[in-house]
Specification:
By secondary structure, the chain is mainly alpha-helical. The chain has five helices and no strands. Helix content is 75%, strand content 0%.
Length: 187
Amino acid sequence: MLRNSKRWLFLIATITVLLFASSFAQGGRPQEPTQDLPPPPEVREELRRNIENMRIWKMTQFLELSTEQSSKFFPIFNEFQGKREKLEEERGEMMRRLGELVESEAEHESEIRRLMSGLVKNRERMVSRQDEFWREAEKVLSLKQQAKLVLFEKHFKREIRGMIEDIKMRRFRQGLYPPAAPPRERR
């Protein structure tokens, strides 16, 4: 248990450091609130990896996975995640292009129709991948673990959102970060 606590603290500390690093200009001085830019890509990637590691660790705990289950479940989960991310990227690109066409003065009816059809197909593939994932996951997870997995994503997103809001509030109190919006009520 102590080892897990240290790991959790390390991940929180890493996220905090990465968020603080993004707010400092050259020379170690805080940026002006109007200059608060997103962190550079390498910092965002490191943060993304840390959050994903924390997600896997928290999922393992939340689902109470045995070592054997973990070794079978996470390859299935990671494959699904990869497919899902690819489909989400495709969808994002189609949405970006659709937005450009809608804002354009010229008529692009055939291109809009093609993109709309592509969005429907993308959604169908996403549902198909989810169904495939659940068929494979039910071979490894108990019914209770499957139910916990359904609940986990909302639980984890709420936890991450709360951590980010806490960090932003600390930074705001230190004069390093302007609040984007008042903190939302946690549900």
